[in-house]
């Protein structure tokens, strides 16, 4: 679909230049019969198209067209002329790439004669007149393209868009970066083949100035490869003798551990059924489709970049117990003297962090959940005792660096058949959407992404008041199984959040608790590919962006 605003009469020459540049990049994306080696290059053009569209949104070009008001454009008149020249040079560079080339090769000459763009076609394009996609796709063949010119054009395109972004204010640049990251994340979400994800990983490596989304593409590609080839598994099962339990950290049976004689590790547990079971996955299925997949997802040393711990491997604790032991490593840069603390334990401290720290913590937890959902994983047990901090001796807690752990119930979102009912743990019901344990005619429904988002909403309430939810509700008569109903019946609970941290934060909490009703789209199923895409976009806009925009005076 073309972005709004490519019929640009209301925006003058800058708008026409922008629309022409977008159409020009679209022509490259429609090149036919490209060799496999160059599919990644075409994908890089798509990423740059996303950057250019994000720039158009960031400076207000599309909004100006919608309102018929050129004053909505946020760059100065002088910079508009510079931008117009940059866009014109971009379009010219693409035309130099696509126009028919003289060649002595008969085969290429014949293909050029059959498919070259006539003068009328070019004039239509240069005037910014909208062209039908089918007509475009029949005009350009790879046989008319030179590979070295293709890479040169891509470099020119990237440099030009860098120049356009540099014309904007620092705040607008942050907005553009957010929109660009959303484009990239959407590509990670919708691509599911190993080949496509591999191409995306390499394309993002070239295009992304940062790191996180590149790693997400890599994580998802590795996961899909293991799912497609079950015989290919990481050497993730560890020797029992290599893991030594030290001290119990908390009531959730999280233990400090020593691995191969070294400190700086901890273990968490995943129970499995014994004997034959007619309900839920077997031990073997859990090991193959959950444990090994999870270890593969978290095995990367750079997993800390998305605020999840690195998982070294697992041990089958049988016959001592019927469970798997997952071994995690302290984050890079953390000393072995650091104390592992949970958010739940910190919430019970009398010393409450300042508002800026609490907002930063809320942002970080929401961002990590967004990343997990982008690569196709459901956490299923998001609660304050599964959010970890590593406090160095004689240092304060860094609330901007929480780590989401507690993956004992997690699974890939595509594997409903691997779904298990969460074990009975004290206080867990406070964080669970009621549909996770409510019986319907056909039994319990599979866990959904919005159930994780609901749990996030509960954690945000706790962060706002700096108390566990059970203490916030103490004396109210609200039972843990009726938290959902109480929050929707009595808005005072959310109004108290607004009084504590502000209206914008309150709106974010309300969005999370409403789930699909707030983050979905009419006529779209949440479990569909389109539903996942809409949910990701709306979560970014209504949760992450709003949290980022909260200003706290220091």
TrEMBL record:
Cross-referenced InterPro entries:
DUF7580, HeLo_dom, HeLo_sf, Kinase-like_dom_sf, Prot_kinase_dom
Please report the stretch or stretches of sequence annotated as the Protein kinase domain: 198-554
Gene3D superfamilies named in the record? Prion-inhibition and propagation, HeLo domain, Transferase(Phosphotransferase) domain 1
Superkingdom of the source species: Eukaryota
* SUPFAM superfamilies in the record: Protein kinase-like (PK-like) (SSF56112)
Which GO molecular function, any one, fits this protein according to its record? protein kinase activity
Name of the protein in question: Protein kinase domain-containing protein
